[in-house]
Design goal:
It is built from seven helices and 14 strands. Strands 3, 5, 7, 8, 9, 12, 13 and 14 form an eight-stranded mixed beta sheet that branches. α6 runs parallel beside α7.
């Protein structure tokens, strides 16, 4: 994913220029004062030319914009095998129901205790450097497939994996990392931005042979994996799909 370039859409360029004006910035100040990238890169961004994905995201963050609202995504041709992963993730998200039955919980380093807050037990904003656990409250028994889209846009399968070796669960509450995992909590790393969680609760996962095994690290999803997931959920009559998100901040 890191080698992919992004291009600002026409509408995105307009929004970016307005954001600069609102913040009393210029394209040159992004180079000379903020030091985000070279002049040629900043110029490419504001003229709809390709910019490396990570730098594109950083430019958007610097001017307080969501990069997904600025980037131009290729139109997907349903008759071809190729589809941009971001589009496929959005299709999965569209099938999901927003829920308060899963989310993230802050973990204190000293005690590894869960910190609960009202009215929701789940955090919606966490800082870089924090440690978290995922929690899901099952309404029916089944296999849990848990996917995360991180703030850089990479999509991961966390359950099943070495952090969730037991993917078939009874009804009730479960958390990741599970007992017996190599770690007790996940560190919040990377860059500020929104992260998303999709959970699929189903009765049969035999058709998804690419899912990580008990001792495997989380799998970075590609377009092929996401296409298979879309096909899979379209064929299942008894699966549930849940969605939630949270925001990572620098301070």
């Amino acid at each position: 994913m890191s080698g992919i370039s992004l291009v600002a859409s026409e509408e995105g360029i307009v929004r970016a220029r307005k954001a600069l004006k609102r913040l009393n910035l210029t394209q040159m100040s992004l180079v000379s004062e903020r030091g985000i990238a070279s002049w040629s890169t900043i110029n490419n961004f504001f003229n709809g030319k390709p910019v490396k994905r990570q730098i594109f995201i950083e430019i958007c963050q610097e001017i307080n914009l969501d990069w997904q609202d600025i980037a131009k995504f290729p139109q997907e041709d349903e008759t071809t095998e190729f589809a941009y992963p971001e589009q496929l993730w959005r299709k999965l998200q569209a099938l999901a129901s927003p829920t308060e039955q899963m989310g993230i919980i802050l973990v204190t380093v000293e005690t590894l205790a869960w910190r609960w807050q009202n009215p929701s037990p789940y955090e919606k904003t966490v800082r870089l450097g924090s440690r978290i656990q995922f929690k899901v409250d099952f309404t029916t028994p089944g296999y849990l497939l848990l996917f995360q889209r991180d703030s850089s846009g990479t999509m991961w399968c966390f359950c099943p994996s070495c952090f969730a070796p037991q993917s078939k669960l009874e009804s009730g509450k479960t958390r990741l990392p599970q007992e017996g995992s190599p770690i007790n909590s996940f560190p919040i790393e990377g860059i500020p931005g929104k992260e998303e969680i999709l959970a699929i609760i189903t009765q049969d996962i035999s058709g998804l042979r690419w899912l990580p095994q008990v001792n495997d690290q989380p799998l970075a999803l590609n377009a092929s994996h996401l296409r298979e997931l879309l096909k899979y959920v379209g064929e299942q009559e008894d699966c549930q799909i849940w969605y939630t998100d949270y925001v990572i901040t620098a301070v």
